[in-house]
Amino acid sequence: AQSVTQPDIHITVSEGASLELRCNYSYGATPYLFWYVQSPGQGLQLLLKYFSGDTLVQGIKGFEAEFKRSQSSFNLRKPSVHWSDAAEYFCAVGPINTGTASKLTFGTGTRLQVTL
Amino acid sequence: DAGVIQSPRHEVTEMGQEVTLRCKPISGHDYLFWYRQTMMRGLELLIYFNNNVPIDDSGMPEDRFSAKMPNASFSTLKIQPSEPRDSAVYFCASRGDNQETQYFGPGTRLLVL
User: Fold this and answer.
1) What is the per-residue pLDDT across A8-61, written as a single tens digit (0 to 9) for each?
2) Which of A51, A76, B61, B112 could form a disulfide with A21 if both were Cys (CB 3.0 to 4.6 A apart)?
3) Interface test with B, best of A42, A103, A108 (most B CBs within 10 A)
4) Residues A39-50: pLDDT tens digits?
5) Do B43 and A51 touch (CB under 8 A)?
6) Could you tell me which of A15, A1, A31, A9 has the C-alpha nearest to residue A86?
7) A 49-88 near B (Cβ less than 8 A)
8) Which own/partner contact pairs does A47-53 have at CB distance under 8 Å and 24+ positions apart?
């Protein structure tokens, strides 16, 4: 069964500092990997995704993530955090199945707090 | 594109009452998903549809929960009777065929007293 682990429940960083949110997955084959962000009272917004190819993917809002197969990780990074990045971040994994729906499995989320 | 639309955004009801949550997926999307988010259990998939047909309802907690999709542009999630432990945020998401990205609605925050 597929699973996602986000080991950090809560992270606080200063505005302007760099950020790395960790995500480890368990899956029997190459998965689809996603990072979503949820602002308070809002739905989930897709930040970026990885299907294949270049293991460093760029997303919106200056975020990037790197897929490391050997470590079963898909960590999210941002070189300089802005106060507006304060939100909850979810990593998700889904199977590569053409023509069928992929059931995404979500991690428990990491809440990011940004101090000024 | 208006995105996934959910209504109501907030619902407060008393235990035992029927609750109906509504979702309009993105036009042209063939798949629709219902999720529940709680502090204790995180984000859980309840059920999903493909071309209006329920494909997997293994996440539906119990018989008090039911979901329908009478047409491509509308789905409901019904709880009858509701219980306090059903209090959560319920999200609807949709995606297109042969695509893997799910697009989420803003959610319905349900409080059962």
Assistant:
1) 999 999 999 999 999 999 887 778 899 999 998 888 999 999 988 889 999 999
2) A76
3) A103
4) 988 889 999 999
5) no
6) A15
7) 49, 51
8) A47/A76, A47/A89, A48/A76, A49/B100, A49/B101, A50/A74, A51/A96, A51/B100
